[in-house]
């Protein structure tokens, strides 16, 4: 081989050697690997991240976070990070399940693993910025709110006023009272089937109560001069009647009769349609009398006999009598 031929062969060999060395250099890439914050670097000829980890005998689960992904192409100077997932207990409205997570805080579990906003209507325990680790429990309550409007009666007050037009001891409702209505707005907060709290959001008056006015009699009664009953004899027309007895101040009886007299023996209450007021009478077992009063229960053949005291009225009781009308 001539000298020129040797020079050509040597040059070709040098080029091949350089290319081979370049290919070798280019096929070996430096990769930095970070696992849970611990970093290491090494040279690899692998083409993708999955092969890099397999060659390094580093196992990852489907719950672990690998960045970039296992299919990513490897280049020199590449940084690969692995965050190992840990199991925690997730309690949502009382339903518990195990969750593998790479989140560092309770808030990241909600936002990252569950895809929920921390501004949603929820409660979170522990607080969002609390770190979580293996075996910890994160309790999440998804809230449901219901507003209730409750109406309640507002009792009316009673005002008592003196009235000199009424006899002392008597009362009269001058203005009838009415209960008012109040509305209360209540918010019920539920988590699943459990009611967590009840909040009173406000109160309003729908209708005000109306005060009842009661008139209290202050007038001191003047006892009327007894009309002259006189001696009424038997005879004339006779009626068989049911007789009861009454006296002032008993069972709501006032001091005056329908004709303005006082109540005493000889004054009787009648049904004016049967015996006209002012009629003089003689009643067997009672004596002379004058029809000077009426009563709500004295209808038809009924007569109410006046006495000077409640004891006498009680002693008389209820009887059947003969009434003589001269």
Attribute tags:
14% helix, Ubiquitin-like (UB roll), 326 residues, Resuscitation-promoting factor rpfb fold, mainly beta, rod-shaped, 19 strands
Number of helices: 4
CATH superfamily of the largest domain: RlpA-like domain
**Percent helix range:** 10-25%
**Approximate strand percentage:** 35-45%
The radius of gyration is 55 Å
CATH architecture label of the largest domain: Beta Barrel
CATH class of the largest domain: Mainly Beta
Please report the total strand number as a whole number: 19
Q: Which whole number gives the mean pLDDT?
A: 85
Q: Which of globular, elongated, flat, extended, rod-shaped describes the shape?
A: rod-shaped
Question: SSE order, as H and E?
Answer: HEEHEEEEHEEEEEEEEEEEEHE
CATH topology of the largest domain: Barwin-like endoglucanases
Tell me the span between the first and last alpha carbons: 184 Å
Broad structural category: mainly beta
């Amino acid at each position: 081989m001539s000298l020129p031929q040797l020079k050509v062969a040597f040059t070709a060999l040098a080029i091949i050697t350089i290319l081979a060395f370049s290919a070798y250099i280019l096929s070996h890439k430096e990769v930095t690997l970070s696992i849970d914050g611990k970093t290491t670097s090494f040279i690899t000829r692998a083409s993708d991240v999955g092969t890099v980890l397999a060659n390094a005998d580093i196992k990852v689960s489907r719950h672990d976070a690998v960045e970039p992904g296992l299919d990513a192409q490897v280049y020199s100077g590449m940084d690969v990070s692995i965050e190992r997932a840990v199991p925690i207990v997730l309690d949502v409205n009382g339903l518990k399940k195990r969750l593998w997570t790479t989140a560092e805080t309770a808030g990241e579990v909600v936002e990252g693993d569950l895809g929920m906003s921390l501004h949603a209507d929820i409660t979170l325990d522990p607080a969002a910025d609390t770190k979580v680790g293996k075996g910890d429990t994160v309790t999440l309550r998804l809230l449901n709110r219901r507003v209730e409007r409750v109406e309640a009666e507002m009792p009316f007050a009673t005002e008592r006023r003196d009235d000199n037009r009424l006899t002392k001891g008597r009362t009269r409702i001058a203005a009838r009272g009415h209960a008012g209505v109040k509305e209360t707005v209540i918010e019920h907060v539920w988590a699943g089937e459990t009611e967590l709290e009840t909040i009173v959001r406000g109160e309003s008056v729908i209708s005000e109560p109306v005060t009842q006015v009661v008139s209290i009699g202050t007038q001191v009664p003047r006892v009327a001069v007894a009309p002259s009953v006189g001696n009424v004899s038997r005879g004339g027309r006779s009626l068989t009647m049911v007789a009861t007895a009454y006296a002032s101040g008993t069972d709501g009886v006032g001091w005056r009769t329908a004709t303005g007299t006082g109540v005493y023996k000889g004054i009787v209450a009648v049904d004016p349609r049967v015996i006209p007021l002012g009629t003089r009478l003689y009643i067997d077992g009672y004596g002379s009398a004058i029809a000077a009063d009426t009563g709500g229960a004295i209808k038809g053949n009924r007569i109410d006999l006046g006495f000077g005291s409640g004891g006498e009225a009680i002693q008389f009781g209820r009887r059947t009598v003969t009434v003589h009308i001269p």
